[in-house]
Amino acid sequence: MKARISHGFSAVILAVCFVWIAAFSSFASVDGALSEAGESVISGWAADAEHPDKSVPVVLCVYTDGSREPQELVKVTADQYRTDLTNSAANGKHAFSYKVDWDKLEGHSFMIEAYAETDEGRVRLYGSLRYTKKEAAVTVAATGSGPSGNTGPGSKETTQDTARRGALLGIFETTAYCTCKQCCPNGTALTYSGTVPKANHTISADITKYPLGTKLMIGDVVYTVEDIGSTIVGNRLDIYFSTHEEALDYGVQSVEVYAVE
């Protein structure tokens, strides 16, 4: 009886191994890579070594502005001819390209991945590419000698200087503060750096990541790191407002933060 059970168990194990090996073999036969992510085209190639005359379907996915969840952009077929594929991919008709209009996609910075579709599932192609939308020079709020009045983050004013938006640093959680007696009854009106805080200029940050004096852009406004806070750690910022009402109105917001070139 034990021998029969053992024999049956062994047969099951062998069957499972056979299915697993068959699936792995199918996955392993698919090869390919992303080649380019330019201003208007995403391209690459994919081929099935066991079926060289078969065109492989490919799914292009994008991660937007550092998100962890990919968005499926489009499904294409790797059936275009490329001379450099004649040796590595049989007849060379295993390239794909997709004309993309980045301006129609929400976000600023994108990471692109590609997956070949097989009967057993998706196989990721080699490599990942990045594309960042080009930005024109942006007019930003200039820093004055005193408070800017009733204006909040992202609001535009008459300016004297211009700055260029740099790389996206990420999506930050932002809060608001002021130095009124209600909020700081025993505090000082000066920032950690010793300056007088100004609206549309002063910001609190984690100075281990963004040292005092660092310029950060939110919307079209350039802020300067001049202050710190006990809860302002990592990708968190505290924006200075000139009145208590403005700080309350701002609340808590998740915003894109950029470096300044």
Structure summary:
The chain is mainly β and 261 residues long. Helix content is 13%, strand content 38%.
Mean pLDDT: 77
Q: Which strand-content bin applies to the residues?
A: 35-45%
The profile of the biggest β sheet is: 6 strands, mixed, barrel
CATH superfamily of the largest domain: RlpA-like domain
Task: Give the number of domains.
Answer: 2
Along the chain, the helix and strand elements come as HEEEEEEEEEEEEEEEHE
Secondary-structure-based class equals: mainly beta
Q: How far is the N terminus from the C terminus? A: 78 Å
Examine the secondary-structure arrangement and name the CATH architecture of the largest domain: Beta Barrel
* Rg over alpha carbons: 28 Å
**DSSP summary, beta strand count:** 16
CATH first level of the largest domain: which class? Answer: Mainly Beta
CATH topology of the largest domain: Barwin-like endoglucanases
Helix content: 10-25%
**Unreliable stretches covering 5 or more consecutive residues:** 1-7, 11-26, 136-152, 154-161
Taken from the alpha-carbon principal axes, the silhouette is: elongated
Strand arrangement across the biggest beta sheet: 11-15-12-14-13-16
Describe what you observe in this structure.
- The chain has 261 residues and is mainly beta.
- Helix content is 13%, strand content 38%.
- The protein has two helices and 16 strands.
- It has helices spanning 2-29, 244-250, and strands at residues 30-37, 41-48, 56-64, 71-78, 95-99, 109-118, 121-124, 129-132, 138-139, 162-163, 165-177, 202-204, 215-218, 221-227, 236-240, 253-260.
- The strands form four sheets. Strands 11-15-12-14-13-16 form a six-stranded mixed beta barrel. Strands 3, 4, 6, 7 and 8 form a five-stranded antiparallel β-sheet that branches. A three-stranded antiparallel β-sheet has the order 1-2-5.
- Strand 1 and strand 2 form a beta hairpin.
- The chain starts with a helix and ends with a strand.
